[in-house]
Automatic annotation (TrEMBL):
Lineage: superkingdom: Bacteria
A Pfam family of this chain: Lipase_GDSL_2
Source species: Adhaeribacter swui
Protein name: SGNH/GDSL hydrolase family protein
An example molecular function term from Gene Ontology annotations: hydrolase activity, acting on ester bonds
Phylogenetic lineage: Bacteria, Pseudomonadati, Bacteroidota, Cytophagia, Cytophagales
């Protein structure tokens, strides 16, 4: 599988550079489109580094784990088709979606985006406008069914070793502000919002929740996110 990391996957300096980039070509992950046997229900995952599980194995991505958990619950969901890349902001994800020319509809759509808007110091107003547009796009992918869309909150990267020499309190406050915007937009469009941010902050006291690159989260953390999302995802088929 191709991993979208710049040169050295354990170099936090290069990961910093990747976060600061301002343009990316669209990336689609067709290898995750479906298991060997076609599933009854389809799944599209939209996002950034957290959606592709930067620095962890494919099987440890929270999106992959969510699909697996749904299948174990008797809901025949395919592994996700994924449009995501490390460093993407809301605007870059929307551009990538347009350029990918994906025009299918899906039974489940997940969206996790915004950390790079916060990291680059973009305004809440910009994020709100662009997030709303993405949310509307996600709903269209879900055949205009808002309840088939799940949005996960932005995790707090300020608790990772990468942020040790930064203002972690400020990062937390900004992440919370971005998430407040996202949650309000979800409520207005009747989209389910899954708050995984408090869980992400467990990494401050437990290094096993951090990936080897010291910036992203581990498969152990993603397992907890998938567990949080599972009961809400299951309601789609109730």
């Amino acid at each position: 599988m191709q991993k979208y990391i710049l040169n050295n996957p354990v170099s936090w300096l290069l990961l910093l550079a990747s976060l600061a980039c301002t343009h990316f070509k669209p990336m689609l992950y067709p290898e995750l489109a479906s298991p060997d046997i076609p599933a009854k229900y389809s799944y599209l995952a939209l996002g950034d580094s957290y959606t592709i599980g930067e620095s962890v194995a494919v099987a440890d991505r929270w999106t992959y784990l969510l699909a697996q958990n749904l299948r174990q619950a008797g809901i025949d969901v395919a592994n996700p088709t994924t449009i995501a890349r490390t460093g993407w902001t809301t605007a870059e994800l929307q551009e990538a979606i347009r350029e990918s020319k994906v025009n299918a509809t899906f039974d489940l759509v997940t969206l996790l985006i915004g950390v790079n808007n916060q990291y680059r110091g973009q305004s809440l107003e910009t994020y709100q406008t662009e997030f709303r547009e993405l949310l509307q796009t996600a709903i269209k992918f879900a055949a205009d069914k808002p309840r088939h869309v799940l949005v996960l909150s932005i995790p707090d990267w300020g608790v990772t070793p990468f942020a040790e020499d930064r203002d972690q309190k400020k990062i937390a406050q900004e992440i919370d502000a971005f998430n407040t915007v996202a949650q309000k937009e979800c409520e207005q469009l009747n989209v389910t919002f899954v708050d995984i941010t408090p869980t992400s902050r467990k990494a401050l006291q437990n290094g096993s929740y951090v990936a080897p690159d010291m910036l992203h989260f581990s498969g152990k953390m993603y397992t907890e996110w998938a567990t949080l999302a599972l009961p809400l995802a299951k309601t789609i088929w109730e």
